[in-house]
Fold N-acetylglucosamine kinase.
Amino acid sequence: MTGKSNRRFLAVDGGGTKTVLLVGDDEGHLLSFSRGGSSNLKSRPWDEVKAELSGLIRHGLEQSGSSRDQVAGIVLGLGGSDRPEDRARIVEFLSAELPQQAVITVYNDAITALAAGTFGERGMVLISGTGSICCAFDPVTEEYVRVGGWGYVFGDEGSGFDLGKKGLQAVMKAYDGRTAPTLLTDKILTRLSIASPDKLITTIYESDNMRAKVASLSPAVFEAAKEGDAAAEFIVSEAVRELAALVAATHNKLKLGSDRTPLILSGGVFQEPYFLESFTECPEIRSLSLDIRCLNVPPVIGSYYFAVKQAGLLVTPEMINRIQQQCNDKGEKQDDTAHKPYNDNGTNQ
């Protein structure tokens, strides 16, 4: 689809596993999607993050038939970008990559995911992908609250990484004879194409992106739990409790009261129906007055809405409907892990 406007807006959603860049115009025409690896500042070296973003911008403009001079603005929702010094270095870097008129704004990826689900209205967002975080924002008071999202060393409870890590721990405990055998052993070894648990050391610790590799094992945990494996069921129940605690703490901090507050669920973990049902039916969540919505467009759409708004344009119902229809037509959805990511050399991996 060709946009009618000459202006281009770039939108980025980047986490611990992948980054998506969208190029659109000011009328809601989505011109191209490009994908790459992690752009989380706290899980990759800065030089690699810069190369990832630079390659995605170049690829996105080429794919959309756009030029650098057409870029009016870019909004990035990036994991690990809450601190002012992190945002400043991203803005400084992109100022040299983009034309002078381009407005550059950086948010935590949770805020842009929230915008994708509420179009800028008050609400909460819970993300459980490679990492986990819960945020709330009230545009009337401009109050912002975040809970969790402290990284895989001392946070990210209930995330894909957390599920995968605990699955690996259960396998090694069973291998040692410290616990009973578990279905997780065969499921994780099969997923990684290795023969025995002692091979896990090299496979995991020497992988290019250890966090992503471990997070990719969460489906094996879900499979084992659905088959009644006690170790896997316990891991899932712990993840549900941890995520519910993030939501409850966020809800209390923002003093949202008894209104039915939108709670947007985003991230690959919530794409598992078994886990989604376990979470939404848990007592801690049911006790809160929430309007729970699974994000039905990619989180990068929230960055696009912000980019359009910062140019002084309205996000109209017609634009929202057009975007939703294009996402449906292109097969774009909340979790796009089924798509192969873009490499800097223009190939798919």
